[in-house]
Amino acid sequence: MNKRILSIDVLRGLTIFMMVLSGSLVWNAGLPAFMFHCQVGPPTFVFNPDIKGITWVDLVFPFFIFSMGASMPFSLGRKLAKGTSLGQVSLGIVKRWLTLAAFGLVLGNAGLIASKVALPQIATRIAIWLAMFVSLVRVKDSPKFKGWAVNLVGLVLLVVMLLVEKFAFGVEFGFGHNNIIIMVLSTLALLGGFIWLLTRNRMILRLVLLIAVCALKEVDWQWHCLGMFDIPGSINWLFNWRYAQYLVITIVGMSVGDLLMKATDDNAALCAEAGNWKTIVAASLCALLTPAMLWAFYTRHIWAALDITAISAIVFLFLTRGDRTVWTTIARMGFALLALGIVFDPIDGGITKDYCNLSYMLSTSGLACLLTAFLLWGEALAQKHGKQMCRALAMTGQNPMIAYTISGFIILPIINLILSIIPGGTDWLNNLTAGRPLVGLLYGIFLTCLMMLGTNFFTKKKLFWRS
Question: Cβ–Cβ contacts within 10 Å for residue 416, how many?
Fold first, then answer.
């Protein structure tokens, strides 16, 4: 139960890397459209729901939701195994929901001075992050009350810094100013947590729930099926039924997590004969399907997508016909979900992230399963040679909230401060990246690597945020 599946950490770390990189790419560098969200591409960067397809940027959010779902059996199951009562675990789920929601609210309102490059605003933004750090850090190896005392001090400091932001800079706070990504995650943490508790030993019930969520999504569920449960506008920011549609991905993720947890409980191998050439080819197919599907969906070669998936699945099944370890089961789930997603593409009028449709959720869930299977193979191969796979990505994935915030609250403010001190520094950076795709890409990679270095520093020091 206590064994950590490194592949899930690496998947989460890779997702955060992609997330920060996509947010660090400058718009004036002339980068191609597939480097941005498919529906918000150059040259205007104006949202257009009529554009069909997805890019690598559109995989970030579903992959993160998937990894969140895959972690639930370990986090919740570990508590139950230690004898924690069902009521206490349920209370913990609610507390996590509220913590994430409050975190999203703070991020949204603290971000209102993100565009300011003057020293007072930059110092305030850094101070807000430091206050968040103290209020969320997990204090180990000490009496429990000391940990709560540290977090309480951080909470007081956070309130003080937000008041400084309000009265010193005239920021108008509001519940509408929140971080949409964190708010979605908070809703999924609440609903997904209770779904796992309800279905942890009832796989048929979970499958029924998954099918029900898919069916309701396909008939525009949030308006027609849940209208009677409308949340009052005053608290709609805290819980929005529209976010519950992403339970499709969460349920798939938690099912993968259950398979992995059972394998660790049984002390079973994650992947049999990782060095065998057949296994290597099969694992490579799992990895190559992601770029292949991105090409097919982006260029709208849907028949090619179906053919590639079907042929890859047949070859995979043939090569792994004697392998009954967990990675092949997860890969088979991935092939099935991806095929369903491709079938729903024409039914949904073309795959899109926004507005999110069922083709998108099934396809990305399938790709997440296939990538997880590939990483499980990589983890087994690395263990065979006494090594650890992708350590930097794994440490980033183990500290997701620090990784998510350190760029916007620490790295970029410091860079902006340096540029503001240098005469013409901001103009120099704009001119350096303008019309230069390679320079724009390298700048984004540079910022993302700084994020990883900062996050890994805290992970090595065993400083983690509550999330």
Answer: 22
Question: Exposure pattern of 351-390 as b/e (b: 16+ CB <10 Å)?
Answer: bbbeebbbbbbbbbbbbbbbbbbbbbbbbbbbbeeeeebb
Residue 127 makes CB contacts below 8 A (sequence gap 6+) with: 157, 161, 164
Distances in Å between the Cα of 394 and the Cα atoms of 4, 109, 321, 403 are 11, 30, 30, 12
Instruction: List pLDDT tens digits, range 176-185.
Output: 888 999 999 9
Rounded CA gap, 258 and 272, in Å? 19
Give the sign of the dihedral formed by CA 287, CA 292, CA 298, CA 303.
Answer: negative
Distance CA 300, CA 67 (A): 28
Domain parsing of the chain, residue ranges? 6-268+390-460
Q: Say what angle helices 203-218 and 247-265 make with each other, to 10 degrees.
A: 160
Cβ burial 133-162 (10 Å sphere, 16+ → b, else e): bbbbbeeeeeeeeebeebbeebbebbeebb
Measured between alpha carbons, how far is 210 from 195 in angstroms, rounded to an integer?
10
CA-CA distance, 322 to 251, in Å (whole number)?
Answer: 28
CA–CA distance, 436 with 30 (Å, rounded to integer)? 6
DSSP 158-204: HHHHHHHHHHHH-----TT---HHHHHHHHHHHHHHHHHHHHTT-HH
Asked if residues 339 and 313 have their Cβ atoms less than 8 Å apart, the reply is: yes
Q: What is the pLDDT of residues 242-298, one digit of tens each?
A: 888 999 999 999 999 999 999 998 888 888 888 899 999 999 999 999 999 999 999
Q: Supply 340's token pair.
A: 């369903």
